[in-house]
Amino acid sequence: MVDLIYSRGITDLLREVPFYFSILKKTMAYRLFGSKQPMYGSVDVNNVCNLHCTHCYWWLNRKEEGQDMTAKDWKKIIKNALNKQHIFFVTLIGGEPTLRPDIIEVFCKEMPKRVCVVTNGTFPLMYYSGLYFYWVSLDGTEKVHDSIRGQGMYARTKKNILDYIASPERNARRRPAWKEIWISMTINSLNYMTVEELIEEWRDKVNKIGLQFHTPFVKGDPMMLPFGEVRNQVVDKIVALKKKYPDFIVNPVKQLLLMKGNWGGIGTTPVGCPSWAILSLDHRGRVKQPCCIGSADAKDGMKPICEDCGLGCYSILVAQGIRGA
Fold first, then answer.
1. Nearest-angstrom CA–CA distance, 197 and 235
2. 231: closest CA among 183, 184, 188, 198?
3. Residue ranges per domain, the chain?
4. What is the largest CA-CA distance in the chain?
5. CA torsion, points 131, 137, 143, 144, in degrees to nearest 10?
6. Which DSSP symbol is given to 225?
7. How far is CA 111 from CA 40, 147, 269, in A?
8. How far, in Å, CA of 325 to CA of 316, rounded?
C-alpha cells in the first residue's frame, strides 16, 4: 500500500470518497451560508480509567459509575448519529478506551480507518484492522510524565509502544506498525521545558507527534502555562522544530501561533471556537457541551474556560478558517 495522505493508501482514499465530498459540502455550506454541520466525532467509550492524572479534565465531571453502554448500544449510535450525519472521522476517548476493546472493535468495523484511539498506553496495544492510529499520551520526559501520571507509567507506556511496533504480526501487513502510533503531548506548567527532548526521543520511532496546551476549568489553575513571555517562547521553539521536522510534528505553524493567546471564546462560552464541527458524545451517547471536554450535564457539569483553551482538535479548524460556535 502506498501512503499518500497521512498514512492513508489508495484503497483507503477510494473507499472514503463519499466522506470527502461530504466534508467539502459541509465546508462550502459553512463558508457560503454559515451552515454549521458536524464534520468529526469525539466519543467517550467508557467511564473508567486506571490512572488519576494531575491535569485530567475527565475526573472533574465523572458521574454515573458503572453505567457504561454495551458494544451493541454503540453500534446503534454509530448508525443513527455518526454515519447518518456523515461524520468523517471519530476519536475514541474515555476514561481509558483500551479497557473496552469490544467497543473499539465495533467502531473499527463500522467506520474502518476512520477511527483513532486516545490512550494512556499503560495496557498492551491491540491490533484492529480498521484502526487508523493510536494517539498515545506522553506528557514530557520520563520523570515529568511520571510526576503527572504516576510512578513507572512512562516506562510501561514506552514498552507497550515499542512492543506494538516490533510485533511480527503487525509488520507482516503492508503498512508498518510504527505508522499507527502518534504521540500526543499536552503542554502545561510542569512539562513545557521537556517538549524538545520528547520530540527528539520519539521522532525516529513513531509516525507523528501532536502538541496542545492544558485547558483549565478554573481561573488560576496552576497547571496552565499562562499567556505571556514563557509561553510565547515555547510556541516559537515548537515552530522552529516544526520547520526542522515538518513531517513529524503534525501541527501546522498557523495553529501553533494561535496558542499564544485567546482564540476560543469569552469565559466559558465558545465564540471563535467551532465547537459545532465536532459531535461530542459522553459514555451514555449524550451530546457534551460546550465541547469534547465538557459535559452532557447542562445544570451541574463543569465547563472549560474557552478563553484559555489550548485544545488541538478545535484550534486546527480555526487555523483552517472554520470558526464560530
1. 15
2. 188
3. 10-319
4. 52
5. 170
6. -
7. 12, 36, 32
8. 15
Q: Cα dihedral angle (260, 265, 270, 275), rounded to 10 degrees?
A: -20
User: Is-contact 136 182, C-beta < 8 A?
Assistant: yes
Q: How does DSSP assign 230-287, residue by residue?
A: HHHHHHHHHHHHHHHSTTTB-S-HHHHHHTTS--SEETTEESSS-GGGEEEE-TTSPB
Which residue do the cell numbers 510504527 mark? Answer: 178
Residue-by-residue DSSP string for 148-178? HH-TTHHHHHHHHHHHHHH-HHHHTSSS-GG
Report field, pTM of the whole predicted structure over 0.85: yes
SS3 of 226, please?
A: coil
pLDDT in tens, the chain (325 residues): 344 455 556 666 666 676 778 888 898 999 889 999 999 999 999 999 998 888 888 777 777 666 899 999 999 999 999 999 999 999 999 899 999 999 999 999 999 999 999 999 999 999 999 999 999 999 999 999 999 999 999 999 999 999 999 987 665 566 789 999 999 999 999 999 999 999 999 999 999 999 999 999 999 999 999 999 999 999 999 999 999 999 999 999 999 999 999 999 999 999 999 999 999 999 999 999 999 999 998 888 889 999 999 999 999 999 999 998 6
Q: What is the CATH number of domain 10-319?
A: 3.20.20.70
Strands (E), the chain: 40-44, 89-93, 115-119, 133-137, 181-187, 208-213, 265-266, 269-270, 278-281
Pairing mode, if any, of strands 269-270 and 265-266?
antiparallel
Cα gap 309→53, rounded to integer Å: 19
Grid coordinates belonging to 156: 510501561
Non-local (6+) Cβ contacts of 325 within 8 A are 265, 269, 270, 271, 273, 274, 275, 276, 290
